[in-house]
């Protein structure tokens, strides 16, 4: 985060979700510490996220899940938004740990270093970093035992978004605007580009980084240049700054000019241009992390994967009034690809594990879609 951008973040937004009485009896699955409100009322959880908690994007989805967990489990959950830098995560995390919070979740894919630092400083507090993918088991073993990690396979949903874009594009040119080049984020535009080539081998792909999740002006400038260059479907991986991409699409001379948003269904922010949104079920992930802790099941070096098959991570939101942009034949192809990703017939590469990987900009361009399971019958008509 550039120092000059911090002014745009405003004051940290904090939501405290109090203990809810009378919850939990139906949630007790007999595992770990149970989930009755009587046993849970002293549990305190803090969730720190990039972006405002009401931003209709990343933080909003996490906050919705935290709110539901507080209600269902009868616990106190404090959600803090606009936490953007390593220093802010360290400061906020340290403050909550010192106040006796039991579980602290960092909802930012590039904040493992602050999480490691605090887990060592507060060995009796559980920390969870999300998302994070280990290169190998030795890297995981090197982390403090009270630091857990989760990964949600964003590359799968981003791949589906790309497959859709490859069929919808009229210009055979699609693009992406993303915030920062770190693996958990870079895999999203990279998978998008790979999905586009799965359905359209003629498609060309461009991408721009803005170095901000929140600066709508930067996102608008990046998107405007991409639309001006003839790209007609732009994928967003910039959190609340997507509003800048939507504005660029609305004012673009390139028609159609579609946006595929991420993290939250954002169609109503741009009903003329937002074709769909990639929903990573972040609210469900937040609920599951918190419930797993309450159930006493977050042990040493805890790690969990969520994907399209086991957690609806990467579903595409309804097209709403833009459904005419997607033909019945294209939807049938997309359904086939979705099932192939779910059952493993298409293996979308990970950010840092396996071979090949897509955690660095430009890496997907070196991958033949056929090598991961794409077939000729998945290509749009005329290809």
The radius of gyration over CA amounts to 21 Å
CATH architecture of the largest domain: 3-Layer(aba) Sandwich
Average pLDDT, all residues? 90
N to C succession of SSEs: EHEHEHEHEHEHEHEHEHEEHEHEH
Q: Quick one: how many beta strands?
A: 13
Assign a percent range to the helix content.
25-40%
Distance between the termini: 42 Å
Which structural class do you get from the secondary structure elements? alpha/beta
State the shape: globular
What is the CATH level 1 assignment of the largest domain? Alpha Beta
Percentage of residues in DSSP E strands: 15-25%
What strand order characterises the main sheet? 1-3-2-4-5-6-12
Number of helices: 12
Uncertain spans, ≥5 residues at pLDDT below 50? 1-13, 19-38
* Domain count: 2
What name does the CATH topology of the largest domain carry? Rossmann fold
* CATH homology superfamily name of the largest domain: Response regulator
